[in-house]
Amino acid sequence: MSKENDDDDVQTSGAIDVSMSANAEDSTSAGCLLPLARIKSIVASVPGSIPPSPDGLFAYSKAAELFIEDLLKSTEKLNGGDIGYDELAEYVNATEELEWLQDFFPKRITLEEAMKRIRDQD
Predict the structure, then answer these.
(1) How many structural domains compose the chain?
(2) Are 57 and 28 in contact (CB under 8 A)?
(3) Residue 40's domain spans which residues?
(4) Of 98, 96, 100, 92, nearest to 75 (Cα)?
(5) Same domain, yes or no: 74 and 98
(6) How far apart are the C-alpha atoms of 32 and 61, rounded to whole Å?
(7) Are 50 and 71 in contact (CB under 8 A)?
(8) DSSP reduced 3-state for 53
(9) 98 and 110 share one domain
(10) Which InterPro entries does this UniProt record tie to the protein (predicted)?
(11) Radius of gyration of the CA atoms of the chain, in A
């Protein structure tokens, strides 16, 4: 890895290493894959929540990244490397610990099936 200047981003294989960038917003954003501003706005949307510190935002980000990584690895293990929406929804709906996520990953149905369900409700 070559370093052009301390003030410039260090690049390797097209990736930017923000931890060595003088232009980074703050040191806690280094190494985060999820946007901290988005996490901050999600936390702020919870009524009565206390705004998290920069370290708290970093912890939320890392926890979410690890959760997503574990979810994808578990789905991949179950499906032999093929991960799409249907595989992810199947895994979430079959796993009791992920029951709270089932509304976010409903089983895909056809338009005809959805229309039939609506007619049956009436």
Answers:
(1) 2
(2) yes
(3) 31-81
(4) 92
(5) no
(6) 7
(7) no
(8) coil
(9) yes
(10) Histone-fold (IPR009072)
(11) 20
Q: Is residue 26 part of a domain?
A: no
Give pLDDT, residue 1: 44
pLDDT tens-digit map of 22-46: 333 444 466 889 999 999 999 999 9
E strand or H helix at 19: none
pLDDT at 29: 61
Residues 6+ apart with CB under 8 A from 72: 83, 88
How high is the pLDDT of residue 39?
A: 92
Residues (pLDDT < 70) of the chain are: 1-30
In the chain, DSSP finds a helix count (H) and a strand count (E) of: 4, 2
pTM above 0.90, yes or no: no
Tokens of 57: 């935002």
Beta bridge partners, 10, equal 17
Same structural domain for residues 91 and 72? no
Is there a contact between 108 and 85 (Cβ–Cβ < 8 Å)? Answer: yes
- Rounded to whole angstroms, what are the CA distances from 17 to 3, 56, 65? 11, 22, 18
Per the CB < 8 A criterion, the answer to whether 75 and 87 are in contact is: yes
Q: Is residue 116 part of a domain?
A: yes
